[in-house]
Each structure stands twice: as C-alpha cells, then as structure tokens.
TrEMBL record:
Keyword Secreted: yes
Protein name, as recorded: 3-oxoacyl-[acyl-carrier-protein] reductase MabA
PANTHER family in the cross-refs: 3-OXOACYL-(ACYL-CARRIER-PROTEIN) REDUCTASE (PTHR42879), NADPH-DEPENDENT REDUCTASE BACG (PTHR42879:SF6)
Lineage of origin: Bacteria, Bacillati, Actinomycetota, Actinomycetes, Mycobacteriales
Species, as recorded: Mycolicibacterium hodleri
Localization per record: Secreted, Cell wall
C-alpha cells in the first residue's frame, strides 16, 4: 500500500469497531498518524496498540465540550489535525411509531450531534492552518428508504446536508467537506450476530432488503468504505468538496 498520507494526521471518531476500525487501519496503512475516539473507555486500550495510532480519547461526543477536549488532545499529541472523520454513530432502527423519546434522542445525538460538535471543534484549528478535510460517514438509506430507517435517515440526512454548507463556507480557507455514504455493510460484529442465528427476525428482514437492492449482489465491506475515506483524505481529492460519495454497489444511482 502506498504512503500517500505520509505526514498527514487524522481524527477518527467511532473508531473501535466495524467501519471506524476499517478506516483507522486504512489511514494508518497509508502513512497517516491517527488519533482515535471511542465512546467506551474499555475499547480504547486495544485501539492504542494498533500501528500508526498516536493517541486517543474516550467520551460521549454528543455531550457539550467533549469534542473540544478531543480536538485539543489530538493537537497536543500530533501537532495539528489535517483530517476529521465523523464516523461515530449508531441509530436505533425500528418502525417510526415504535420509537420513544429516548430512542429518538439517541438516534439524533449519536449520529447528527456528534458530527456537528466535532466539526465546530476542529474548524477553528483548520481555518488557522488554511487546510483541512472534513469527511462525514453518512448512509445510503437516506436515498433508498430502507424499512425502519426513517428516523435514522432524519439524522443521517442532516449529516449529508451539512457538507454542502461547510464546503461553500470554508472553501477559501482551504477546507473541503464531503460525505461517504455506504449501504448495508457486513461488519464483523453484525456478521457474528447473523451467523449465530440470534438476530431478531425484523433485523434479518431489514438486512435482507438492504442486500437485495444491491445490483452487485452483496453487502459492503468496511475496507471498501475506508478506501473512499482515504481518497478524500489525500491530496488528489483537493478539487472535490460538498459531495456525497455513495459506496453502495449500485443500490442507489444518479
């Protein structure tokens, strides 16, 4: 693998599993130094043992001031931050009218508020340096309308919409902002649940629908999402901003 990200630094949120871990491995594999963020302190130790991970911090990024502390720690550890990958998320997937106030709040907090707070925390630093890459992880379901995803899509739709405004507002500061939107991705954790036979029938139905609409005929892999993130983090993407790149095997087009 080439070292096209040599000398670049990145903050990756939601880094301890699935897509986030795939992104960490891809960025470090291409030479970047990475500062990781995870909600659970217990997961941080294992992350810090990975090659190329410079440091990390645990905390709930949906809460005020946590993102500011994350960025400050990353700058202290790495000297600067070139790339922010807003991967932290995890919505409650259920029929719209079965949501409660708590599940609605968790879905919005985990997906949209985490991204908003991290963007606002890192932008002053990037503006001062006249350089930055903001990469949000969105969801192809915003376009395909998978069953039980309406409230999740409300949160991820905000993540998608954010980058167009950021791209225009901060273009003259040398900052690009884009979204990578995957379809259903077979993460190791989800694969283990499905293979165990313990997945709820409704979840299995949602996943089957998410796979059936993919012309390539399979779910995505975390490494394929990470490849798109690595491209956007690199210098070759300097003229791409305000875009959503769908990593979806053709599930939605146009």
């Amino acid at each position: 693998m080439t070292a096209r990200l040599q000398d670049r630094t990145a903050v990756v949120t939601g880094a301890d599993s699935g897509i986030g871990l795939g992104i960490v491995d891809r960025l470090t594999g291409e030479g970047a130094r990475v500062f990781v963020a995870t909600r659970e302190p217990d997961a941080l130790g294992d992350l810090l043992e990975r090659v190329g991970v410079t440091g990390g911090r645990a905390g709930d990024l949906g809460e005020p001031d946590v993102a500011e502390a994350l960025v400050a720690a990353a700058v202290a550890a790495m000297g600067h931050v070139d790339v922010l990958v807003n991967n932290a998320g995890g919505g409650v997937i259920r029929p719209t009218m079965e949501h409660t106030e708590d599940t609605l709040r968790a879905t919005i907090d985990n997906n949209l508020w985490t991204a908003i707070r991290c963007v606002r925390a890192v932008l002053p630093h990037m503006v001062d340096r006249r350089h930055g890459r903001v990469i949000n992880i969105g969801a192809d379901s915003v376009r395909t309308g998978l069953m039980d995803h309406a409230m999740y899509n409300a949160a991820k739709g905000g993540v998608h919409a954010m980058v167009t405004g950021l791209a225009r507002e901060f273009a003259d500061a040398g900052i690009t902002a884009n979204t990578v939107a995957p379809c259903y991705v077979r993460t190791p954790q989800l694969a283990e649940l499905l293979d165990s036979g313990q997945a709820p029938p409704r979840l299995s139905e949602v996943i089957a629908q998410g796979t059936d609409i993919v012309p390539i005929g399979r779910p995505g892999d975390p490494s394929e999402v990470a490849a798109a993130v690595a491209f956007l983090a690199a210098e070759d993407s300097r003229f791409i901003t305000g875009q959503t790149i769908y990593v979806n095997g053709g599930a939605s087009m146009g």
